[in-house]
Each structure stands twice: as C-alpha cells, then as structure tokens.
Amino acid sequence: MSSSRDRNMHERLQRLRAITNSSAMNKASIIVDASKYINELKQKVSRLNQEIGTSQTPIDENQLPAQVTVETLEKGFLINVFSDKNSPGLLVSILEAFENLGLDVLDARVSCTDNFQLEAVGEESDNSIDAQVVKQAVLQAVRNWSEQD
Predict the structure, then answer these.
(1) pTM of the shown model
(2) Confidence category of residue 58, pLDDT binned at 50, 70, 90
(3) Which of 8, 26, 29, 89 is deepest in the core (most CB within 10 A)?
C-alpha cells in the first residue's frame, strides 16, 4: 500500500515538474520551483489586470464594429464576438488577447464569410480573472484591430 502511495506521489511530482518547467530532480527542489512559478504567474496576472484596468479610457462598446459578450462557466468563460461585416485579422487579435490573459481555448466555432462570428470556451488555470476582465481584453483587441484596419 505504501509503494502505491509513493508511486502516486512520484507521478504527481513529475507532473508538477513538467507543468512548471522545472529541471529539479528531488521533491524539495521541485516544490521550490513550483512555488517560484506560481509567484511569477501571479505577478503576470497582476500586471495584466493593471494594464487592462489602466488602458486608456473605458471602451465605448457602441463605437466598436463588433459586439462582445462573456459569460462565466463553471470553469472558464463562454466568449461570443459578432460583427456584421467580414473582419480579416480580427480572429488573430482576439486569440492574442486570450493568450495574454492565459486563457486556453477548449472549444471554438468561427465564421468569417459574410460576417464575423466567434463562439469560444476559454479556461484559465488559476481562476484569477473574472468575466469583466476577459470582456475588456477582448474589447481592447477589437479596438486595436479596428484602429489598424
């Protein structure tokens, strides 16, 4: 029974080591590396939240060429973006926003024929952002795209 528990512990430590990109071999060093990794992620999230919070004036959604809705799911978000015109490059801009937030896209449907429609399910690993932060980041991506267009 003890060996099964030891094996499970070893497997969990190896997963932790892989997730945190640790090159450590012993348990204590893996845990120290994981702690550093978590702190780095917290700092990144804090920086991103500050950037979103202080980025320019509040975004006037009525002036943007796309509508954005974000709903909170059990673990993650349902993000919908709609524009009544074809919008080349908008998908890339939105996906970059997801990446900057640390959102992993679990499922997505996109249509870019006559109009632009995106429905995506995004999940974050540490639950440190809320739907409003995601919405503001996507709106900022739409704004950045429309200013370049």
Answers:
(1) 0.58
(2) low
(3) 29
